[in-house]
Amino acid sequence: MKLMPLPIQQAKTGENPMMTIEEKINTLPEEAKTEVFDFIDFVIMKNQKEEKLWMMKMSEKSLNKIWDNPEDDVYNELLKK
Prior knowledge:
Elements: E1 5-7, E2 18-20, H1 21-26, H2 30-67, H3 73-80
Antiparallel strand pairs: 1-2
């Protein structure tokens, strides 16, 4: 995947105002890079969790039509015992 340039505040020294995320990360000390990578992993996991919750919510209506019916009430009674 090619990283797209992101605008950054131009320094007084006349630096290039456009840097890729990769270029920005490469300017950081190793400890800060580790922190950035941890944050990226966190954001990825958060998005995956939200996507799973969304899919579950979308399927809930369909599944309720299948599972909630009078024919299956006999199984609900067995669970109460």
